[in-house]
Each structure stands twice: as C-alpha cells, then as structure tokens.
Please model this.
Amino acid sequence: MPSSAPTSDADARPAPAPTDRPLNILFITADQWRGECLSTLGHPTVRTPHLDALAAEGVLFARHYANAVPCGPSRASLHTGMYLQNHRSGTNGTPLDARHTNWAKEVGRAGFDPVLFGYTDTARDPREEEPDSPWLLTYEGPLPGIRPVCMMGSWPTPWTDDLKTKGYPVPADIRFAYGEREPGADYEDGAAVPKPLIYPAAEDDTAFLVDRLMDYMDAAEAKATPFVAHLSLLRPHPPFVAPEPWNAMYDPAAVPGFTRAATPEDEGRQHPWLAHQLSRRLFRASANEKKLRRQKAVYYGLMSRVDAEIGRLVEFLKARGLWDNTLIVFTSDHGEQMGDHWLLGKGGYFDASYHIPLIIRDPRVQADATRGRVVRRFTENIDIMPTMLTALGLATPLQCDGKPLNAFLAGAEPARWRDAAHWEFDFRDPADDAAERALDLTLHQCTMNIIRDEKFKYVHFTSLPPLLFDLTRDPGEFINRAGDPDYLATVAAYAQKMLSWRMNHDEQTLTHISLTDDGPVARAAERW
Model:
C-alpha cells in the first residue's frame, strides 16, 4: 500500500516509555466520507487498512449519522452538540449564534489550548464582529474558541505558499490547486487511468496538514503539554483528483454500480423536491457512465490516500510515546451521493448523504475490553462533543442534544438510548429563490426533517407531501409508501414520533430553572 514518506529520520526513533501524562485528544474529520466505505465493514472495493487497524484498537460505530448538510450546518451540529432546529445555522453562510458554546470553548475554559489544522466552516455571528471583519466575507471562519495553527479551506494559502517555496507551479487562483491535474485526456476521453494531481502525494494538501499537525505535537511533547487538536481534512471532498498512485488505485470499470432509477426523469417522479434537485446541473450526476465511474474510482482513491496519512499519524504517535495517552476520534461531516439516485454531492433525505463513519480509540485501560467492538446502535454527530468532554472529565453543557458515547467505549450499554437517527435539511437559499418558485414555497418552508430506524424512514416537509420508505423491503429507497393504504397507520405513527422527537429536543438552556422566593431553583433533565 503506497504512503507518504516520514518527514524526518526522527520519526523512526524508539518510543519513550509509557507515562501517566494527562489525556490528549486528536479529533479528525475527513470531509464527505460515506459510512460504508471502510474495508473492515466489507466494502467490495475501497481499502482502508489503517482505519481498519484503528477500529480494531477502538470501537467502530456502524450506524453513525450526520445531523445536517452541507458542511457549515453539519459542522455546527458536530461542534456544538446541537440539532439544526436549535443552533439554526441552516446553510453555508448562516451565522452560528455566538451565545452557543462548543467543545473548543469548553476545553479552553478547562485550561486546554484547542487548536485547528484545516477548517471548521463556521459562519461567524456578525453581532460579535467589527464591521470590517474579514470573517463577514466568508462562511469559512474558525470555530469560536479554537486557535488556528494551520487554517485551510477553499483558500489553502499555507499549503500553496509551501508549494511555491518548493518550486511547484501554483494557479493564480489558489482555490484551484486542489484540482490541478496533469495535462492530456482523462479516463472518459480514452486515457487508461484517471488523470492525477500534478503534485506528488508527499506534497498534497492531506500530507501537508498532517505534517503541520505532527510538528505541533512534537512541540507539545517537548513542553510536556497535553493537547486537544482538531485535524479537518478536505479529502475525499471534490475536486475528485488524486495524486499518483492513488489516482489509479481503483479501476473505474470495476467499481460498484449506482443505486438509481433508469433515468433522472424516472427518479424525479418520486417527489417534487427530488425532481427540482435533479433539475440543478451542479447536483445532477453525469449521464456519461465513464465519467461517473472515474469520479467514483478517484473518490475511493482519495479515501485510501487519507487512510495512508492516518497510518502515518498512528506511527508518529507510537514513535513519540503519545499512543497510550491520546484519545482519537475519526468521523466525517456528511456523506456523498456519488451518482446514487442520479445525484452528486450531499442533500435531501437519502442515507448516502448522512451515513458516515465513526471510530473512537480510547487508550485507557477501561477501554481494553472493547477493542475491536462494533456498535450497531444509532449514533449521531451531536454525540461527539459530549464524548470528548466526558473523556476529559468535563460536564456536558445543557445546550447539547447529543449524549456521550463513553459507556460504549467502556463496554457498557446505556440504560436509555435512541432507537433511530434524526437529521434535517434546510434547502433555503437567501440569494436564490429558485426552489421557492419551483415548489411554491416561502423561504422558511424550504425545510425537511427525517427520522430513520431499522425498519422505516419517514421524511416530513414543511409544506410538501411526506415520504415513507419501508427499508426492509426497499433498502434502496425507491418506493414512497406514504400514500399506500397499507401504510397509513405507519405514516401516522412516524409523524407522531417525529413530532415527539422535536418536542423532546426543543432548546432548553434556561427551561430547567425557576425563580422562587428562595432564589433560583434548578433541576436538569436527561434527554433520551
């Protein structure tokens, strides 16, 4: 399996003896990673040996889901532990209300220095910024409370500056550096393999961020300072361009086919929203089968590329004596349709956009009995913040809709746990009223809520017809049973379940407090 070379000979030095140093946290996200794309889960094509090994040393959560898409709303839930209905950052660019805390603020209050390598896609609250603040010009601001050490997003300035110093060509608009390909024909035009990135793997954006993180951890180790670091990798997010040899790792002709109807028009008959989404060029998969297969093959190649860098990180942690006191969390912000239902990107209600991987490796002795465990209860990204805080001995703020996963890591089964996953999609666009005109909606009616358990998925639109999928009989989500007389009782039951779910998770920051003659009285309640 190809991988990047170590950054220096020091990477091979003997590991220090184990110590009783405080727990570190390494929180890793890989952008747009579908949940089934791990070879340890039996994926027929993609190979992820290093993540498989991490799962064997930790716990793999096989039914883990994002709570929103696209990146900004999903990461708002990931970082605050809140459902979209409460944090209300519903689109890329919708400000995240500054009154909400997040994991970085919480660990900062406890004396840690939470640091960022990559991006958080946080649209900053304009009420907290000066009128000339640069963060008012982008949704890609840093999460409040986190210290950017190497911040990269659409504008990968640290990486492209590094490439320039090493003599590599960089496009005038550095946003295009992620997709700079070798000249010539691509696979769909007759090339034997997909065109590679012009930069070698050891110099790509993934390796660059991992190198900077390792530099930081080296410095923290030298100071004997515990760290809480967030590594936010772009890949396998588009552009679907991988460096050699990862561009050719998977044969486009051999990748699995696509879960879809015969034509986009047939697919769109399922629901008005889907028909509208398929009418949008940027979200409709190409009708060119070879191009679509090339994209999927490179998508898998980018996953294996990230996997190799995870392996390099693990080797580094072991070499530095950090493996035995670093809790590792690996997940994604959301999935990718990749041609299924004729869609590209993320959005809507299909599992492909929301089912994502989650692996947690707790190094402490209390987790020894669970190494290699696969949890099949429904977990969500809102659970990540409570899990990291609990691992550090910190309380979970009342705002959090999620619950800590630490009992699963210790081999226990929580007394009460959710029996379904829940997510939301806000498809409003303040800059474009196309959806409102096409679907006869107001701006605030461009929303949907989804509840999904082992047997059924129910999709509730604010002002459009609902959907119900019988997942036992129809795992591909093709047949809407909402109007089927045999399923009317099921539709009613899931509509009630959805309503109860939302009522149970209404924002509750002050609702447990009562002002009395004796002063404030507080009694917090568990959410389940």
The CA atoms of residues 63 and 378 lie 5 Å apart. The longest helix spans residues 289-319.
